[in-house]
Amino acid sequence: LIKCLVDNIVVDISFNQVGGLCTLCFLEQVDNLINQNHLFKRSIILVKAWCFYESRILGAHHGLISTYALETLVLYIFHVFNNCFTGPLEVLYRFLEFFSNFDWEKFCLSLWGPVPISSLPDMTAEPPRMDTGELLLTKAFLDRCNHLYGVMPRTQENQGQPFVSKHFNVIDPLRANNNLGRSVSKG
Q: Percentages helix, strand, coil for the chain, rounded to the nearest 5?
């Protein structure tokens, strides 16, 4: 991985890495499922802009949230609220409302629901919804995406490693032992 700064824009160039492409394919599948003129992608762009320019919380290279972690958080909002949105601004509102009340000190976030940090390495999630509402992504859809796009680490020592909790914990939908929040510093 080579990190470059081009006109104040961070550019990553990776070699022999398929994880990023698999993630892209997974998010493309989700966007196709949601449809609505790429509402998912447009919402990610708006939430990323807010996180970068307004709250200054986006940028893994500075100890902040990674892009993929943020995309997973946006996906969680679509998943739990079952794609009931009319536009990206509504998604941003729901994103801010939901995650400002999420107990990050006690829970990891996964698409299956909040996972108590105290129960790790057990990944049993609490239900993401307390009502009888439907979730957007079915188990079959997520299992199929995990089969198609889930990348196993090439080195044997990484394959059996448990999820390691940090200050901010987001479970990768494609690899459960990968903490997408590992880049976030305590500050």
A: 45, 10, 45
Angle at 57 between CA 13 and CA 167, to 5 degrees: 95
What is the rounded distance in angstroms from the CA atom of residue 9 to the CA atom of residue 22? 23
Question: What does the pLDDT look like over 11-62, one tens digit per residue?
Answer: 878 888 788 888 999 999 999 999 899 999 999 999 998 878 777 766 666 6
3-state SS assignment for residue 80: helix
Decide if 77 contacts 120 (C-beta within 8 A).
no
- CB neighbour class for 122 (10 Å; exposed up to 12, middle 13-18, buried from 19): exposed
pTM summary value:
0.86
Amino acid at 137: L
Helix (H, G, I), strand (E, B) or coil at 136: coil
The Cα-based distances of 5 to 49, 52, 92, 102 in angstroms read 18, 16, 28, 34
Strand partners for 13: 2
